[in-house]
Specification:
About 30% of the residues lie in helices and about 15% in strands. It contains three helices and five strands, in the order αβββαβαβ. It is rod-shaped and about 130 Å long.
Length: about 140
């Protein structure tokens, strides 16, 4: 006996939307938990060298300028006549040092021109390394 006469046979179908949702969740989980090795970085081996530290420190030439415009080289008062004469005094105070570092200690109230005079004299003496000394605020 066929009770289903006239009825079309229904084909079983699989709903794919929940399956796709589950696959997306699994992919997201795998993306978040996977550690990636970095192949883009360069693996280099740096060369090795052994060298001793320089034993000689650069010689310092301390030039002080006070608020009234008086100059001193290495603590010895030196009059400033012109830049060339002061450059010669700096060379004499350097004691034959080839490239001393000129440390300018200028008073806060010293004129700008007096500091420029020292810099000009250092240039004429051939000293290119100039440093300025300061103190921290209290």
């Amino acid at each position: 006996m066929n009770f289903r006469v006239g009825r079309a046979r229904e084909d079983p179908d699989i709903n794919l939307i929940p399956l796709i949702d589950i696959l997306i969740v699994i992919l997201i989980f795998l993306f978040l938990t996977t550690t990636y090795s970095r192949y883009a970085e360069l693996q280099i081996n740096l060369p090795q060298a052994a060298a001793d530290r320089a034993q000689d420190k650069p010689s310092m030439l301390n030039v002080a300028v006070d608020a009234s415009g008086k100059y001193a080289i290495n603590g010895v008062a030196t009059p400033f006549g012109n830049p060339q004469a002061f450059a010669e005094a700096m060379k004499g105070a350097a004691g034959g040092a080839k490239e001393p570092v000129v440390a300018i200690s200028a008073d806060a109230a010293a004129t700008h021109q007096s500091v420029i005079n020292v810099m000009e004299s250092a240039r004429l003496a051939g000293y290119n390394h100039i440093s300025f000394t300061t103190q921290t605020r209290r």
